[in-house]
Structures are given as C-alpha cells and as structure tokens.
Amino acid sequence: MEKILELISKEVSGAFEAAGYDSALGKVTISNRPDLCEYQCNGAMAGAKQYHKAPFMIADEVAEKLSGNEMFESVESVKPGFLNIKVSPDFIRSYIVRMLHEKKLGVTQPGHQPKVIMDYGGPNVAKPLHVGHLRSAVIGESLKRILKYTGNDVTGDIHLGDWGLQMGLIITELKEQQPDLPYFDPEYKGQYPKEAPFTISELEQIYPKASAKSKEDEEYKAKAMEATKLLQDGNKGYRALWRHILNVSVTDLKKNYKNLNVSFDLWKGESDVHDVIPGMVEYMKNHNYAKISQGALVVDVAEETDTKEVPPCMILKSDGASLYNTTDLATIDTRMKEYHPDSLVYVVDKRQELYFTQVFRCARKTKLVLPETELHFVGFGTMNGKDGKPFKTRQGGVPRLENLIAEIDEKMYNRIKEGTPDISEEEAKDTAHKVAIAAIKYGDLSNQPSKDYVFDVDKFTSFEGDTGPYILYTIVRIKSILKKYSEEGGDAKAALLRNPETDIEKNLMLTLSRFADSVESAAKDLMPNRVCAYIYELANVFNSFYHGTKILSEPDADKKSGYIALLNTTLKVLETGIDLLGFDAPERM
Fold it and tell me: Would you say residue 305 lies in a domain?
C-alpha cells in the first residue's frame, strides 16, 4: 500500500510537471508548522535558481494546477514560495479504511520472505540472568517481531555461552566438593544418574566460588583448564556432567525469559560448533586466508580506508586453543550452511563493535558468507543508575533480573490494588506484571539502542509522560469506552468511520495514517525506538481527542458510531505497536 506522503507527493509532482517544471520538485513532507497546515512542499524554493524565476511565482502556478483536486482541502502558495497543504476529510477517511483492510495495516511486504538470523540474549549457562542481560533480550525480541511484521522470515538464536573455561571451573569445584560422584571415576562403566547432583541455586553458588579460587590459586586454575580440555575432548563423565549443567541452567533461563516475554527459536550454544572448528581452520589455511603471526593463526582484516587500526582476527592462539572469534566464525559458517540466511543480525553491547568488525570482515574475506549476505551489528549502550554509573543494587552488586522484575511487579501491584480496590488478587497480579513489563521494556526501547540511558524506576512506572504505563493506560481507557458503548446497546464492530469534522478528529486520523512509516523505518534502521516514538505521539493525540470530544454523550447516533470506529482503529494500531515492542495491555488498570 502506498504511503500517504507518497500519494500526496505524486499529485504535487504531477502539478509541477503540468506547470512546466521538474516533477522531482514535488516532494512533500509533514509540516513543521502544524498550526498553519498539515503538509508542505518547498520545491518552488529549490526550483527558483534552476528556472530563474521567483519561487512564489512557481508556487502560485503549482497551486493553481492543484485547485479542485479532490485529494486536498486546500493548497496555498505562501511567500516567499512555500506550498501549504491540507488534505480533504474524505481522502484521509478513505485512506484509513484502506489501511484497515490491508493485512499489516499498510506495512509494505516484500515479494519474497528474506531469511534473517537474529543473535540476541547470549547468557552464560550456570549463571543467573542479571540486568546486564536485559538490553540484548529486550531489543532483540522487539527487532525480531518488527522484522517478522515487515515480511521477513526471522529465526531468533540465544547463542549460549556453554563451552568455555566456566565449564571447567564448575567441574573442578564439583570434584573438590563431591569427589565420590561417578562422573569423576575413570573406571565407572554404568549409566550416569538422570538427576543432576545440584540444583540451580547450588550451581549458581558453585561458579562464583570456583572463579574466585582460580584468580588466587594457579594450581586450581590449571586443573580447571585441564577439565575444560577433557570436556571438549569428549571425556565421558565430564560430558554427562556438562549435560546436567546445561539442562538445569536452560530450564531456569527459559523460565526467566518467559517472565520477560522473550522467546527464542533456537537454543544453540558455542558447544554446537565445536566439531565444525577443525574443518573451518583447515579451510582457512588451505586457501591461504590465515597465516601464522607470533605463533598464533590469524586473518588480516585491515582495509586501506581504515582511519583506526583494526587488528588481525585471531583464529587460534599460539597453544592451538580456539577463541570467541573462532566460535563465532564457526557459528556463522554453520548458520549459512543450515539456514541460508539473507542477513545476520547481532544484538550485542556496543563495546564489542571492534570485535564484530573483525569477525564480519573475516567472514567476508574467507567467503564464509556470500557477497550479498548482510551482516548487522546492533550495538547497545549501558543501562545506568541515577548516578550515571552502571546499574547496581543498593548493596553495590549487579541485580538479578528476576529480582528487578519482582520489585517492579510489587510496586505496580500496590498501586493497582490502591486504585482499584474491587480487583481480584489474580487479576491484580496479572495486571501488575503486564504493567511492570511494559515499564521495563518501554523504558529501555524508547531510547536509541546505541545510547546509554538511566534506568529510573520511578519515572518508568509513572502513568504520565513518555512511559509504558501511560501507553497502557491509554489503551485501557479506549477499552473502557468501547465496553460502555456495548453495555448501552451499541455494536462497536459495526461502527463505520466518518469524515472528520473537527481538527482534533482529523489530526488523530492523520497520525494513524503514519503507522506503517514508523514500523518500516524501525525495521530498515533496526531501531525499535521509532515505534515507541510513534505510539507515544498517537497516545497523546488520542488523549487530546478524548478530552476535546463528547464521545458516549454525543446525541447524534451516526456521529457517535463514527467516533467508536475511530476508537477501534486507534486501539488496533496501539495494540499492534506494543506487541511489536514485546508487551501487552490488561483489561483495566
């Protein structure tokens, strides 16, 4: 479906051409003076030099050509040469009706479904999720939804850290604590126990303890490194223990991500490409992509246009050990062979930008990806506390994600119980959680991904201003009006849009018409904040309409029905918007 600006620009461009000027001068934009007009065209200003003519004369001629065009309520030529445009009420109503009949509310769908692999989440097993994992999960989930909505075939992969030294550390510590476990007996021939010898809580205590020991005790660290090597080389007992670690951790991760309304299609980890690495390394050597430098195997990825040094991408360390680079390249290789994606999108801390520059360049140079494969790095900034430093608990530690969510859940629960005394316990808890998730996600997503931001619980949970709860409150307000209309005997589903009669009614329709632009822009530039900005604007415009219009008390039944149809449309667009951001609205608040 053509966007409203495209349709208007097409008419204005035709008028420029009919008046004897270049049609390219007819580009129309949203007015920066909404008090004067809805859209504007400054093409006459640009054409003045080209045609050696006063711009207002060109504008006068174009305005004359547009006189009587049913698309426009008015087209005025304003000195020194601007075209101020207002569309007709019938045009904007018919545009919204067509938009509602489109499958995706007017969002352009590609001729085929491009395949996208989204890499987001990236937690290490055996460690609890903390606030540092929030941005990758929230931004990645929203981008996955936005890309799917715009016609892409998207596969989300969590990319677990499940194969490195932390596994060796856990195994080493377990061996010290429970040396009689069968996993450590090289003579053991039976079946290993089905139940893990630890709970998730115990596992989460084992790793930090082992990590601290390894920093102080070189012998202990050497044992952990040896355990890691034995695990990766296929030691039967260690592999069985590793599977326990993975199962217990992943079960807990799934529970916590579900609580955040985040999901993954694939639960792959670094371990999944362990057997791919030797073949990939040989391929790089045989094709002379990789060379030995100071004992290590590297691929040069510097380019002549670089303004800063880009070091070689290391494939193997001097002792032959692989690195994160190796694992990520093997993962790219596997994804290309198994899924044949058109693009790979990584949602990672922006401090990893140089690292991913090296990896992406290496993947291209070694032809692990096709020349046309798109590689995107969505680097996100830091989530800070009010002091401007990385977010911490009052005790100074990094807060666990589930504790942060629980804290905000409780805050919203108390507020909802206070404001709606008759609400049941079950509904209060469900509503509180929905509002809490909206507060957290919108508070994050409303910022440009690459920007650092301050995580301000009081601000994010406010029902006023640019917040998730404000958006939800607006949706609940619309639901309440529609419910009352039905209780009064009205049929909300049968309501039909009418031509707008007031400026605030028309402004709401004009704002609704821009939904597709915001979503397509967010998808193109991988910026969910564009959707946040749009739904906040829409919520504000709707609330102005609500406060300035008698909706349920309107005596004219047809006019009232038109208002209800407009509310239905606004609700549909707002609910679609918040779904793209990864949260939903309760029935009441």
Answer: no
- DSSP E strand boundaries for 141-231: 153-157
Dmax over Cα atoms in the chain, in whole Å?
Answer: 96
Read off the pLDDT of each residue in 477-482 and give the average, rounded to a whole number.
98
Tell me if 97 is assigned to some domain: no
Radius of gyration over every alpha carbon of the chain, rounded to an integer in angstroms: 29
Give the per-residue pLDDT at 242.
97
Exposed / middle / buried, residue 215 (Cβ in 10 Å: 0-12, 13-18, 19+):
exposed
Would you state the pLDDT for residue 244?
A: 97
Helices (H) and strands (E) in the chain, counts: 20, 13
pLDDT digits (tens, 9 = 90+) for 152-208: 999 999 999 999 899 999 999 999 999 999 999 999 999 999 999 999 999 989 999
Q: Which CA distances in Å does 450 have to 349, 438, 518?
A: 9, 20, 19
Residues 53 and 170 in one domain: no
Q: Are 334 and 284 spatial neighbours (Cβ–Cβ below 8 Å)?
A: no
Residue at which a domain ends, from 259, 277, 301: 259
Domain boundary pick from 32, 58, 87: 87
CA dihedral (415, 421, 424, 429) in degrees, to 10, reads 0
Tell me if residue 75 falls in helix, strand or coil: strand
Q: Which residues contact 5 (CB under 8 A, 6 or more apart)?
A: 28, 29, 30, 39, 517
**Does residue 393 surpass a pLDDT of 80?**
no
**Enclosing domain of residue 453:** 441-581
Between CA 253 and CA 258, with CA 256 as vertex, the angle to 5 degrees is: 105
